[in-house]
Automatic annotation (TrEMBL):
This is GNAT family N-acetyltransferase. InterPro entries: GNAT_dom, N-acetyltrans/Recomb-assoc. It comes from the Bacteria. Residues 1-153 form the N-acetyltransferase domain. The lineage of its organism: Bacteria, Bacillati, Bacillota, Clostridia, Eubacteriales. It holds the Pfam family Acetyltransf_10.
Amino acid sequence: MEIKKLQKNDIKNALNLVWEIFEEFEAPDYSKQGIKEFKKFVSYNSIIKKFDEGELNFWGCINKNDLIGVIATRGITHICMLFVNKDFHRLGIARSLFQTVVEKSKSKNNISQITVNSSPYAVEVYHRLGFFDTDKELTVSGIRFTPMSYLIK
């Protein structure tokens, strides 16, 4: 398995993986409005514009030429997507993807934390990665999330 920075031609595949995993694991915890909002957020046209402008960064985990995990950040300090194919859960892929973001953050000066708005499904995953809650669960536009932070050491 290899972690690599994704290029523009990888984004469509990455978003397909994200949507597939979202539908199975996240959507059951969301209202129809929340599902619609997330689908709008991960639409190719919306994402590729942000990617082209340098607002979003993507890394992927590749296993035998297949993309099996994705992490995306807004800037370098806010995780906006972290999804791993269900056949590869609990094998350290999310941790490896996250460590890539930590290392990129460490290479920048004055970055002391990484944030995420965790879905209900992923709260425990982020706790295991070392995140702590910074607020109670919130719902905005049907999207349920817990704001969390990770302090860079």
